[in-house]
From TrEMBL:
Residues 91-104 have a biased composition (Basic and acidic residues). This is DUF4806 domain-containing protein. Residues 106-118 have a biased composition (Low complexity). It comes from the Eukaryota. The lineage of its organism: Eukaryota, Metazoa, Ecdysozoa, Arthropoda, Hexapoda. Residues 178-190 have a biased composition (Polar residues). Residues 91-212 are annotated as: Disordered. Residues 201-211 have a biased composition (Acidic residues). Residues 286-353 form the DUF4806 domain.
Length: 374
């Protein structure tokens, strides 16, 4: 049985960018792919499975990292930092070797032959309640300020004003593990230490304890923003600031939706009709349905003399309910008199010997309320 072709592919371009594309955008040799022109929303093109157009860009594909069935799976994989998970050992060894050579050259040029080493102090970070990163021999606090927002375009890759993150070389969303301080930001390439705020105990309920998984995420973040052995601090802080802004925007939208829903529920409850029934309403069963004209005369006399009884009869009638006035009247008449008594009446006395029902006190009770009870 032929295996179904997966719709999405996570690729690495010849510019070493990670991209999510449709498999239908790949050429047969898998070395070239097509990308929509810049005025097309990239995410919409993926979700709508847009076909290749005549004016699309023609780009080189360095490697296909993974095929996925869904857009969500493809995006998730592209953000997990699995660029280095190559399909064969030869490619993996080549990349490791080239990275090692680049690091050696960079360190020799800057330190006159002395090799510097980046150390992530994970144990210390667990004690402090926040990750602490030390690069080189010195440490410098970093402030997450709005000035880093200028790096947003750089983080977004080469798509210009395209806000979609499917084609970004670095993730825009990752778990908040770093705490800002009041110290000034460092420039690119300087030593960095990320430390918790002062006077905050690790037991503070607002601060979650750092787990091994958190440290793995932190390692992955640092790796993505490390070039030739140096952490690009400003770019990393810019990406973090953008992620925090997006999270804050989402929380604001959720708050607005919850507030609107709460208002709608309160309004709906306020519109529900409320009816009060006196305890004597339960005794109406001894008076109704009326089975003969003598009982009808007794009810008429009681309605004429007793205002409380009249109120109880009105509430009893209203409790019968009905979606329309026709249903309401039908339910009331069936509850207050038998068929034998009803045959003796017509609304205006039509039929000669029929009694006029519109002149009775019972009819007054029927029209004493205006809305059907739903």
């Amino acid at each position: 049985m032929t295996q179904a072709i997966k719709k999405f592919a996570v690729i690495r371009t010849d510019q070493q960018e990670v991209a999510v594309i449709l498999t239908s955008w790949l050429e047969d040799d898998k070395k070239v792919f097509w990308r929509p022109e810049k005025d097309i929303e990239y995410k919409d093109a993926l979700l709508n499975e847009l076909e290749v157009g005549d004016d699309w860009e023609h780009l080189r594909c360095d490697k296909i990292l993974k095929y996925c069935d869904t857009y969500v799976d493809a995006i998730a994989f592209s953000k997990l930092g699995k660029i280095d998970e190559l399909s064969d050992a030869a490619d993996s060894d080549k990349v490791k070797s080239s990275r090692s050579d680049r690091n050696k050259k960079s360190n020799l040029g800057k330190n006159n032959g002395k090799t510097s080493k980046s150390v992530i102090n994970a144990k210390e970070s667990k004690k402090q309640g926040n990750p602490v990163v030390t690069i080189g021999d010195k440490s410098t606090n970093v402030d997450i300020s709005s000035d880093s927002e200028d790096d947003d375009d750089e983080i977004g890759g080469k798509r210009g004003n395209n806000d979609d993150d499917s084609f970004a070389p670095a993730p825009k969303k990752f778990k908040t593990l770093l705490s800002g301080t009041d110290s000034p930001s460092t420039s690119t390439g300087k030593n960095v230490e990320l430390s918790p705020p002062e006077n905050v105990e690790p037991s503070d309920p607002e601060i979650e304890p750092i787990t091994d998984n958190d440290n793995l995420v932190l390692d992955d973040i640092l790796r993505k923003f490390t070039v030739d052995g140096e952490v690009k601090t400003e770019r990393m802080m810019g990406a973090l600031f953008v992620a925090l802004k997006q999270t804050n925007k989402q929380m604001t939208q959720i708050g607005l939706k919850v507030g609107a829903l709460e208002t709608k529920v309160k309004s709906s409850l306020a519109m529900q009709p409320t009816h009060s029934f006196s305890p004597s309403t339960m005794t109406m069963s001894q008076h109704f349905p009326i089975k003969n004209l003598d009982d009808m005369n007794k009810i008429e006399q009681k309605l004429e003399m007793d205002g409380t009884f009249t109120t109880d009869v009105v509430n009893f009638m209203q409790s019968k309910g009905g979606e329309t006035y026709h249903e309401l009247i039908h339910a009331i008449m069936a509850a207050v008199m038998s068929d034998e008594v009803a045959k003796q009446y017509s609304f205006k006395g039509q039929g000669g010997s029929n009694i006029r029902f519109n002149e009775t006190y019972l009819m007054t009770c029927v029209v004493d309320f205006k809305e059907p009870l739903h």
